[in-house]
């Protein structure tokens, strides 16, 4: 295990991630296509510092595993190629602090998810005697981004038969087809896109950063859900996996914003220009306000 780094001819980092032995060349090529654009066809080569341009052996897309190390992206004939980053960034989401939605809506998806899931669906840690103190409900697609959710057409894919008020209103974003039960620490990591579930590789759990050896390669637990109307949607897992790729595999990864420092006690100190003053801070401030006003917007939409 270790870091895999992909650079361009000039030495700029195009993509990087921590290899747990779960991302093969085929999948890596697909992830790279997500985060970069190029003027023509490209291929990945081993990096050999003893060769001008660093071109080593060609690494074609296949089901073999890239070994930790440095690689270089070039044209298939090994000549330099101009490469740019995709303009798409990962979707902001709230890691820890609740937006204090109405008790009825909160209890609806929480109670339903506790009735459906007997354990953490990632680690398989069981719920013992109804004690959920070590567990949290986690949305697959963040509820604050309900406009994006609607634009992607997800409400029409929800087949959950629960009453509309238990689904989070007309958007149905609180359906348990969009909610899973996780161990508390994993919920926070899930919200930060530290790992994702790949439904196209047998629902295997793929972390993007070091420190998650205990869950790397585990298969997301679904066998207890016999009713497909209550089963999480694979399209939502695909979207979440994409967010993890954009967050962690684009360049050297997105810059870290100190959420715990800014929101650890649930209070926003807007005098902290070191937190809220920069571009990233302003983006998080806008997102934080939308997050805290989410339930009000849902209530207004339901009354129209």
The helix/strand class is: alpha+beta
Per DSSP, the total helix count is 9
The major sheet is characterized as:
5 strands, mixed
Report the portion of residues in β strands: 15-25%
Strand order of the largest sheet: 2-1-6-4-5
Series of secondary-structure elements, N-terminal to C-terminal:
EEHEEEEEHEHEHEEHHHHH
Mean of the pLDDT scores? 85
CA radius of gyration is: 21 Å
Unreliable stretches covering 5 or more consecutive residues: 96-105
Quick one: overall form? elongated
Domain unit count: 2
In total, the number of strands is 11
Helix coverage percent of residues?
A: 25-40%
How far from one another are the termini?
A: 54 Å
Give a brief description.
Residues 131-198 form the HNH nuclease domain. This protein has helices spanning 25-35, 103-116, 146-151, 184-191, 234-248, 259-263, 273-276, 279-292, 294-303; strands spanning 2-7, 13-19, 36-38, 43-47, 55-59, 69-74, 83-85, 135-139, 179-183, 195-198, 204-207.
General description of the model:
This is HNH nuclease domain-containing protein. InterPro entries: HNH_nuc. It comes from Lactarius akahatsu. It holds the Pfam family HNH_2. The chain is an alpha+beta fold and 304 residues long. The chain folds into two domains: 84 residues; 201 residues, no CATH class. It is 29% helix and 17% strand. It contains nine helices and eleven strands. It has a five-stranded mixed β-sheet with strand order 2-1-6-4-5, with helices on one face. The protein starts with a strand and ends with a helix. About 3% of the residues have low confidence.
């Amino acid at each position: 295990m270790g870091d895999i780094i992909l650079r361009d001819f000039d030495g700029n980092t195009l993509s990087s991630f921590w290899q747990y032995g779960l991302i093969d060349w085929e999948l890596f090529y697909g992830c790279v296509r997500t985060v970069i654009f190029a003027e023509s066809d490209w291929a990945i080569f081993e990096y050999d510092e003893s060769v001008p341009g660093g071109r080593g052996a060609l690494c074609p897309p296949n089901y073999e595993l890239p070994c930790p190390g440095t690689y270089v992206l070039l044209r298939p004939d090994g000549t330099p190629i101009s490469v740019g980053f995709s303009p798409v960034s990962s979707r902001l989401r709230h890691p820890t602090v609740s937006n204090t939605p109405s008790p009825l809506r909160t209890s609806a998806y929480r109670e339903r998810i506790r009735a459906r899931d007997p354990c953490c669906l990632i680690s398989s840690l069981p719920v013992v005697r109804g004690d959920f103190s070590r567990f949290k409900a986690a949305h697959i697609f963040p509820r604050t981004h309900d406009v994006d959710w609607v634009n992607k057409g997800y409400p029409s894919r929800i087949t959950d038969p629960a009453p509309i008020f238990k689904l989070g209103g007309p958007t149905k974003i609180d359906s348990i087809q969009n909610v899973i039960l996780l161990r508390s620490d994993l919920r926070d990591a899930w919200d930060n896109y530290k790992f994702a579930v790949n439904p196209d590789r047998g629902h295997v759990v793929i972390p993007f950063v070091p420190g998650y050896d205990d869950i790397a390669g585990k298969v997301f637990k679904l066998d207890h859900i016999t009713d497909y109307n209550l089963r999480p949607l694979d399209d939502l897992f695909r979207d979440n996996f994409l967010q993890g790729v954009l967050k962690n595999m684009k360049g050297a990864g997105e810059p870290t914003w100190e959420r715990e420092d800014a929101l650890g006690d649930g209070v926003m100190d807007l005098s902290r220009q070191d937190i809220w003053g920069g571009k990233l801070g302003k983006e998080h401030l806008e997102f934080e306000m939308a997050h805290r006003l989410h339930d009000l917007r849902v209530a207004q939409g339901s009354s129209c």
